[in-house]
Amino acid sequence: MAPHPLPMFVLLSLICLCRSDDRLTPAKPLSAGDKLVSDNGVFALGFFSPTNSTAGSYVGIWYNNIPKRTYVWVANRDKPITNGSPGKLVVTNNSDLVLSDSQGRTLWTTMNNFTTGATGTSAVLLDSGNLVIRSPSGTDIWQSFHYPTDTILPGMQLPLSTDDDLYTRLVAWRGPDDPATSNYSMGGDSSSDLQVVIWNGTRPYWRRAAWDGALVTALYQSSTGFIMTQTTVDIGGKFYLTFTVSNGSPSTRMILHYTGMFQFLAWNSTSSSWEVFIERPNPICDRYAYCGPFGYCDATETVPKCNCLSGYEPDGANFSRGCRRKEEPTCSGGDTFSTLRGMKTPDKFVYVRNRSFDQCEAECRNNCSCTAYAFSNMKNGSTSSDQSRCLIWLGELVDTGKFRDGSGENLYLRLASSA
Questions:
Q1: Omega of the bond prior to 281 within 30 degrees of 0, cis?
Q2: Where in the chain is the domain with CATH 2.90.10.10?
Q3: Cβ atoms within 10 Å of 57's Cβ, excluding its own
Q4: CA–CA distance, 375 with 373 (Å, rounded to integer)
């Protein structure tokens, strides 16, 4: 006898259940043991407890098809669910996500408080790794990409401008099995959104040189052939750090490691491990101000080491005090400027806007306190009306470097005429 066909309402129910696997609704919360899986199975969201940890459980996002459990976002990183209490993640009628424990205590929540006036609001996990709260009209009210933990994924934009409402920092895990916030953080520098800094508490640990307007700020090709492009973009005068990967690339991510290292990683399916193909600071003298005032980290050496800038000599037996001038400039108009190529520009600059190259040089030459200047035409990468970047330094030059790969820019260093 032929099997009876399934009733239509059963088929529709099965279809609905399948489609709801990537989303939460007010009628469908997430409980312990449940998980969301993005449409094509790339990422999953659920409850987890780190290996070798007794702190409790968390809600996070991880790669769904990678055997080594790797988390890219954690909601309640500083408020774990404790005492074995089951938690629940719900979408409220105010279009918020709320995580609570079994006693109803709120451990984490979004702060939208946005009433759509219609049913159909949902939280959707996308194949990009982004968790979004989506209104019935399809508008994304909130997204996890705006509230990162320690990871940047392809297509995600990290705001670098501190006056941006979305400005935030990456904050490293406290340890390999502890997602709580640590002392290491990374983001745009509050004194200049042209550069990116890693802090250890309030002290700089590493700094990326001031952006020179290049459309591509870093380009890396892995041993397996895929290409990752890191860019800084200027959108309406606000700066963002982002990266993309070539088609067919493996899973790729950028993280601020719990050791304070900023790493670019790609999944190696052959070895079933994450391959670190670039990390900063590296070498050791690339750490912030490691070579002292007027010293620089010379990566062109076979073994990178500290050297003194042209016209300077070590101020002591090592570089703990940096370097000192061999001869002081007279500031009588006879001083010269030595062109140092391929340099990482120093920290603590003054950003002078709307200047040509000649005007930038004059800004430095006419100021006896000016020790160096750098100029860049930013018309390729900037959408603001000011498409030049004149930097001048008044006093010590700290955290300077020389690149070995032909990158970097010209630093014009003031010297005495006889130097």
A1: yes
A2: 19-110+118-145
A3: 21
A4: 7
> Can you give the pTM of this predicted structure?
0.89
Name, in order, each residue with C-beta under 8 angstroms of 235's C-beta and a sequence gap of 6 or more.
383
| C-alpha 303 chain-centroid distance | 28
Classify domain 148-281 by CATH architecture: Orthogonal Prism (2.90)
Question: What residues have CB less than 8 Å from 161, skipping those under 6 apart?
Answer: 167, 188, 193, 237, 238, 239
Q: Give the torsion sign (CA, 221, 284, 217, 410).
A: negative
- Closest by CA to 179, choosing from 82, 306, 51, is 51
Side chain identity at residue 221, one-letter code? Q
Rounded Cα distance between 147 and 128, Å, is 15
Closest to 118 (Cα-Cα) out of 133, 132, 137, 131: 137
Q: Tens digit of pLDDT for each residue in 254-311?
A: 999 999 999 999 999 999 999 998 899 999 999 999 999 999 999 999 999 999 999 9
User: Architecture of domain 19-110+118-145 in CATH?
Assistant: Orthogonal Prism (2.90)
Distances (CA, A) of 406 to 120, 262, 299, 342, 403: 54, 22, 11, 6, 6
Q: Each residue of 72-88: pLDDT tens digit? A: 999 999 999 987 778 99
Cβ neighbours of residue 177 closer than 8 Å, sequence gap 6 or more: 50, 51, 52, 53
Which residue, 118, 122, 117, 58, is CA-closest to 92? 122
**Residue 363: which of 389, 401, 327, 330 has the closest Cα?**
389
> Tokens 């508490």 identify what position?
201
